[in-house]
């Protein structure tokens, strides 16, 4: 039986006990659900407060089209949340603080780039999308055109805010992210309610709530950035080095002048001060871009396919159903996503806890393995340059490092309990939807045609009974991310959409009498596929001894390759510094060989 260290037992009790998992899941569920809940409330407000003028269904349909269309520009980059949580959490679990800071910088940069690209693309495609939805010339198009531009302009700051929320999850500071998301949702909903109260003109209302949305989401991103800069990841000795080096130096100089210090950096500044130019940790961050980009591309494909399934369903609903049917479709979408985000709290907990345990296993096995073979090459050069050592906590007692064998029992237990929690929560949602159908429908609309469409057994019963299945799928997604299994998730989605969802949706669209129930049957079929494949992957591979060792070894090989490149560049930088001191120019044979080796290794 494998020996479990005292540190391992302590960490497992702290992070994977049932109370700890439930607290983390509840906070993550609130963080994930509060903004979709706010959207659901806003749709209900738009439908009910305009009923006196007969514009409720029209306004709901226009708002839903804009939210769904522009939401693709955010949710398609889901990697900025779940992937970032897994990446940062794995580095924090391995106690590689500057590497974690590098992942945060990558996440912010990727969020800005993705958000700007999505904004430009959606603004350029507005008229094309309206033609695709077959709403040109209708009142829905007039309302949607007013609101669409504002929703698109909010994509870039929303991507940044989502990415920063993922970073806080990797920090294991989910409660802070939850408080921020809750505040944002409340402010946004209050702004919509106030606008509806102050104005009865639908065009004015759509314009004002659009402006309010942009302002709120920008504030969300700014406050999220402040939290990521100021909060300390759980287990770290201080905040991570996120800011560029010149900004941090200026900030430290100002602090030193105010305190009367001599300006020397102490050990306490190791995390606050970004690495010097040429530092090996800075190199580690640069080299991590390829790994980050590859996994991000896998998640991007996954998210495009997932959001494409919602988008395709909306296109069929807008073309094959009337205005009332489209409004009913948006209500079902909001209820589907609301329950999804609530249950997704268990998925987030699985990603946060699982990635941390995986990182601990990778780091522990790596240290006990004695490091990399190339370490012998560094003996002479490293003897006089100890200040370039990694800032990680590698000096901890090896007896307290956890191996894959130490971590696996706790990981298995946590994964099982999270799946059970998710399914039970899904059953609660199913019961609530079935028992409270009339009351829930009345919250969204009092239009008789919309009510009749929603209350149909083919729609409401299907929505209700799908909840346990959906809950299992969402939880399995989060657990897969904990194992950094992004490539497998991508391939699973490609097969599922191509072999299951697309044929089912096509059948619903060409049916003699297209219906809302047929459209959502395609979504249920896709989730059956996802649940089956992910369950097999998790039980038959990731949580077996051989499979988990393979996962840890794959991640460890990536770390070893990066370490070898760091050492080559570090030795080269030292040689260059010595050459400058001696006043010599050019590269000697050793430097040339190092460069050659670095290029081959890269």
TrEMBL record:
Pfam families: MatE (PF01554). Residues 254-284, 366-402 are annotated as: Disordered. Keywords: Membrane, Transmembrane, Transmembrane helix. InterPro entries: DinF-like, MATE_fam. The keyword DNA repair does not apply. One of its GO terms (molecular function) is xenobiotic transmembrane transporter activity. The chain crosses the membrane at residues 20-49, 61-81, 106-125, 211-231, 418-436, 492-511. GO terms for cellular component: membrane. Residues 258-268, 372-402 have a biased composition (Acidic residues). It is a multi-pass membrane protein. It is found in: Membrane. PANTHER family: PROTEIN DETOXIFICATION 44, CHLOROPLASTIC, PROTEIN DETOXIFICATION 44, CHLOROPLASTIC-RELATED. Belongs to the multi antimicrobial extrusion (MATE) (TC 2.A.66.1) family. This is Protein DETOXIFICATION.
